[in-house]
Amino acid sequence: MTAVSVSVSGARLGERLRRLRRERGLTLAELSRRTGLGASTLSRAEGSRITLTHDKLQRISEGLEVGVAALFAEPKPFAAVARRTVTRADATRHNVSPAADILHKRLDPTIREIHAADLAQAGGLQRLSGEAYVFVIEGEVEVLSDIYAPLRLGAGDSLYFDAAMAHAFVRGGERACRILCVRSR
To answer: What are the b/e assignments for 68-103, b being 16+ CB within 10 Å?
Structure first.
């Protein structure tokens, strides 16, 4: 295959290469391993100090797992949806879903009081989609799962986990506890 020099405003191409690499969490060394191109060559390309041939552009696009056209595409500006909702403290005492009035959320926050003393009272282990974050507001909670040993969390403690793992929450002491649980959809 013959190398054909592609001329596109080098500064913009270099900026796009750097942005795409960073969006994927890749270092120059990692992209170098993926493409077979030297890290110094990639650095010069990102700095718009060299012109890339078609075959090098193809190797970079494959290493970044994008089509060649993505190397030349203008990034889309971030558009804020600008929606919000407020849940006041007096409304969060008992089981409540803050932001319940917002449709099509990616996160599903709930404030829950945990009264169950054992797995049976909790209704058994459950699997949910997405990931979950739990923050203990007050009291102690015990997190039960089908994979890990029971975990006791106190006020101020938090846990991030895969919600598809069968799990349940029971109170860790004699009194009910309150937790904030945020699950991705």
So the answer is: eeebeeeeeeeeeeeeeeeeeeeebeeeeebeeeee
In this structure, of 9-13, 38-42, 51-55, 161-165, the range with the lowest mean pLDDT score is 9-13
Q: How far apart are CA 74 and CA 146, in angstroms?
A: 47
What DSSP element (H or E) covers 182? strand 177-184
Q: What are the pLDDT digits (tens) for 130-151?
A: 999 999 999 999 999 999 999 9
How many other CB atoms are there within 10 angstroms of residue 181's CB atom? Answer: 18
pTM metric for this prediction = 0.56
Break the chain down into helix, strand, coil percent, rounded to 5.
30, 25, 45
